[in-house]
Design a protein that fits this description.
The protein contains 2 helices and 4 strands. Helices cover 28% and strands 35% of the residues. The chain has a 4-stranded antiparallel sheet.
Length: 88
């Protein structure tokens, strides 16, 4: 099962989190990542963050990345959004 954990962090405290699960592997891994991120952003009432080269590199190496103020067009009231893949 493909799972993505999304967390909002402010002042080193977890404000909100959620896990999105996918059991249908007909989509590519990349498409599942974007779909899960869309669902997390919708649930947290956020716009979609902008993926920078550093995010892509972190995600490829560690299966997790952080989106801070520079990744959102609108102002945010948290320090960063972190996503992490949890696969079993």
């Amino acid at each position: 099962m493909f799972r993505m954990w999304g967390k909002l962090i402010k002042d080193n405290h977890l404000i909100k989190d959620m896990t999105v699960c996918r059991s249908d592997y007909s989509q590519s891994r990349t498409q599942m990542v974007f779909d899960c991120l869309d669902e997390i952003c919708c649930d947290f009432d956020l716009e979609k963050p902008i993926w920078l080269d550093s995010n892509v590199k972190d995600f490829q190496l560690h299966a997790k990345t952080r989106f801070g103020r520079d990744h959102f067009i609108e102002s945010i009231d948290f320090d960063y959004l972190e996503i992490q893949i949890i696969e079993e």
